[in-house]
Design goal:
369 residues; alpha/beta; DNA polymerase, domain 1; 2 domains; two-stranded antiparallel ribbon; 12 helices; elongated; binds iron/sulfur cluster
Length: 369
């Protein structure tokens, strides 16, 4: 018996934005120059401005003749993302940005500064069609996929702000990207993979962030995990498992009805085999729901069997949404859970819960509008 699963195919309610420079690869940029009647070398010049100098305003690209600036502004730089507001916490070391896309769609990104790195958590969709019941974004459904450029520009904007010292803590460099904002990245597969290539290629083709410093998360779309493994990328895969048993996972992560735990772990093993990368398993620990010691035993045992030493569990204390019945587990329960997982030979740590006071569990800021 198969449970109905409209979720993955939840129809987007809005269309894509017009084409932007960051949607195009090198060939596409050159073809765009030909369309506009411009010489091909302008393609690299413009890309160097965008990816190298992090300049998204063509009128400020002063190495281009004024007429060329006007032409490309109209053709390749449609209004993409406008910051609605920034909210800071953790003494300014965490900054959440709510963005409005050209069609009014809201999305968000979160910048977290640490002594040794700066990590940006980005959105791949506006809203999410996966309907996880404990998640604010999941309650609103999917508004639409983000375009490649809308994903890339979250990164460019944060890198520019850090470089320019516009973020508390002084000037810095963006080093890490995690696809853990709104949305299920692998449900917007092609645009996300294109965005990963733009984010990680060196200038003038991209922003030059190391693939090893990029994490792509998924709730477990098994065929897409296998496809990603074959892309020749070396990004880290984070699988949001949240429980090791199908019975509970069918309700906690409804897509489990389509691809159960065993299939997800098989796909994760394939990913680890193909890429040589360790798999990150995300586990939102929820009081009296998935925090029982026996589930810790089962999680550790299943992961050890599937992945051996090529896995690490991140326990995330649930950030409760206002008015929700879901809550974080008490600390002693959390400690025992971690101990049980580790006893099976699987490393397990509790994730730093940056940004709780600004509602940084995915989607909450946009949900509050
Ligand atoms: S937890 Fe992630 S996958 Fe689930 S509904 Fe929320 S954003 Fe979507």
């Amino acid at each position: 018996m198969t449970a109905p699963l409209p979720l993955v195919f939840d129809a987007p309610r809005r269309g894509m934005p017009p084409r932007h420079l960051a949607d195009l690869d090198a060939d596409g940029r050159r073809a765009a120059m030909t369309e506009l009647g411009l010489p091909k070398f302008r393609a690299d010049q413009i890309a160097r401005q965008y990816y190298g100098r992090l300049q998204a305003d063509p009128t400020a690209m002063t190495d281009l003749p004024a007429a060329v600036r006007d032409t490309i502004a109209g053709a390749l730089f449609p209004p993409l993302l406008t910051p609605v507001r920034h909210i800071a916490c953790d003494a300014g070391e965490t900054r959440k940005t709510l963005w409005r896309a050209g069609d009014g769609t809201l999305l968000e990104s979160v910048l977290m500064r640490y002594p040794d790195r700066a990590t940006l958590c980005i959105s791949s969709q506006a809203g999410c069609g996966m309907a996880c019941p404990f998640c604010a974004t999941g309650q609103g459904g999917l508004t639409r996929n983000l375009s490649t450029a809308e994903i890339v520009d979250q990164v460019r904007a944060a890198a520019a702000d850090l470089r320019d010292g516009a973020v508390p803590g002084g000037a810095g460099r963006l080093s890490n990207i995690v696809f853990m904002g709104m949305g299920e990245p692998l449900a917007n597969y092609k645009r996300v993979v294109n965005a990963v290539r733009r984010i990680t290629s060196p200038a003038p083709d991209g922003l030059g962030i190391s693939q090893r410093n990029v994490v792509v998360s998924t709730v477990g779309l098994a065929p897409a995990i296998r496809k990603l493994a074959d892309e020749g990328l070396s990004v880290t895969l984070a699988v949001s498992l949240h429980t090791p048993d199908d019975e509970l996972r069918d309700t906690l992560v409804p897509v489990n009805n389509r691809w159960p735990v065993a299939e997800v772990l098989d796909a994760a093993r394939y990913y680890a085999d193909k890429t040589g990368r360790r798999i990150s398993v995300e586990y939102a620990l929820i009081r009296d729901i998935n925090d029982q010691p026996w589930r810790g035993d089962m999680l550790g045992a299943k992961l050890h069997k599937a992945l051996g030493s090529r896995v690490h569990v991140n326990v995330i204390p649930l950030n409760p949404t206002p008015g929700s019945k879901w809550d974080a587990s008490p600390k002693p329960v959390e400690r025992e859970f971690v101990r049980r997982v580790e006893a099976q030979g699987v490393p397990c740590t509790v994730r730093d819960t940056r940004g709780q006071e600004i509602a940084a569990a995915c989607g909450q800021l946009a949900a509050e509008g």
